[in-house]
Amino acid sequence: MLFKSQDKISKSYDVIIIGSGLAGMTAANKLAKNGRAVLLLESHNKLGGFATWFKRKGGTQIFDISLHGFPFGMKKTCRKYWSKEISDAIIKIKGVRFKNPMYDLETDFTREDYTSKLINHFKIPEEKVHAFFKYLEEMNFYDPPKLTNGELFEKFFPGRKDVLRFLLEPIVYANGSNLEDPAITYGIVFSNFMSKGVYTFQGGTDQLIDKMKSELLKNGVDIKMHSRVDKILIENGKATGVLLKGDEIRSKAVLSNSNLLSTIFKMTGKEHFGSEYIKRAQKVRLNTSSCQVYMGMKEGETIPRMSDLIFYSEDEYFSTDLILSPKVGSQTFSIYYPDCRPHLKNHYAIVSSSNSRYEDWENLSEEDYKVKKQFLIDRALDSLEKVIPGVREKIDFVEAATPLTVEKYTLHQKGASFGTKFEGLDISMNMHKQVDGLFHTGSVGIIMSGWLGAANYGVIQAHGIEGYL
Length: 469
Ligand SMILES: Cc1cc2nc3c(=O)[nH]c(=O)nc-3n(C[C@H](O)[C@H](O)[C@H](O)COP(=O)(O)OP(=O)(O)OC[C@H]3O[C@@H](n4cnc5c(N)ncnc54)[C@H](O)[C@@H]3O)c2cc1C
Prior knowledge:
Elements: E1 2-3, E2 13-18, H1 22-33, E3 38-41, E4 53-56, E5 61-64, H2 73-81, H3 84-88, E6 90-92, E7 96-99, E8 104-107, H4 111-120, H5 126-137, H6 149-156, H7 161-175, H8 183-196, E9 199-201, H9 205-218, E10 222-224, E11 229-235, E12 238-244, E13 247-256, H10 260-268, H11 275-282, E14 289-297, E15 309-313, E16 330-336, E17 349-356, H12 366-387, H13 391-394, E18 395-401, H14 403-410, H15 423-429, H16 431-434, E19 438-440, H17 450-468
């Protein structure tokens, strides 16, 4: 059932799930289908977490926040853990374009096309290209990290800044990784995409989450929104429920889809964990954040069909450090053509995304914050005009989001877009070994981030909970 915000909950549950990101929702659905009594609590007024959207101009303009592209695997995951209807609406995007001072080229983001571009455009010897893909294929998550991303590219393509940009730039946008991160985090995500290209959900995030919500309710999940959990109840080293606005709700297990560090240090309390674990948890680095500019077009205006995703940069070289700087000339444009939402008449929307640091946005005066936001908007419009000449005239709605917006709506500390760096994965996966019945899921360790990583991690942790129950 769907509780109203003023409803009090007196029932007890097998599992309480804190947060309805893709990981929390997928775990809820799996557990409910297994016959478990599940309560899903979400702080926001809608489900989805980062998988969200907003409407403007009386609903005629819709913007997706994180529907830019995910690997084919999402189709399989949705088929298995959600429904055929959801899975069938997952379609391949038409193309990805790179436009930067080094090159302007288009790819369907598959292994075949990348291999061809590396050989024919970048003039890399064929054996080298195959050796690179083979190396990625053989990477094993359970092996201790060997190389960093920087070392991986130096090993196969020494000194080739153009190749580095071609291979790494899309993944930096997909999971916030940098040259110092373990190469496994790049290898897994890049290989997932290379299997069949980039996919999207036809109908938009609003329709996806609506279908997921119906599925959850159909399978018996109790859902309550406007419900920010304050505390996880621990008794005798065991999770026994949560504290919600002063009320205790009891359960046999708790799964937190909230930020990893908030789960440990704010909601549970470090006194409930072993000292070694806490020492390691204190060292977990949050991932970086994002800025976005949302651009809506005047009714009746059109733009020519081109790539759905454009990695645009005016910077001569690609640098993972520069890409986080407010001065960066790089951004990704996602273009939503009418076929993304065929049920709406001629709906176009364009979203510019860039990675950014929370620290560059916190503690600004109101005036400075406004100026910086306007800079972001102007940069997006100026750059887009170079990609689609004449587009500026057609745009009649612009709004920007910053790391502070991300923090406000998802409660991720420092507006972290992709959870934590690699070391967070081990802390997340082993939480239940510290406190019986307390599990964590959601974007951590880079590998478990993104729509596919988060949804699959929800399934993994649901299995763990089954074992515990
Ligand atoms: C700008 C941007 C673009 C992206 N683009 C893509 C993309 O194109 N493709 C892709 O695959 N991935 C993309 N991602 C990443 C992807 O969206 C996320 O990794 C994924 O959706 C995270 O899911 P999650 O389960 O970790 O939970 P989250 O989405 O982080 O959701 C957590 C939920 O928990 C709730 N919550 C937190 N604390 C509490 C509490 N105490 N009580 C109750 N509720 C609480 C929050 O309100 C939130 O709803 C993007 C991310 C960003 C920021």
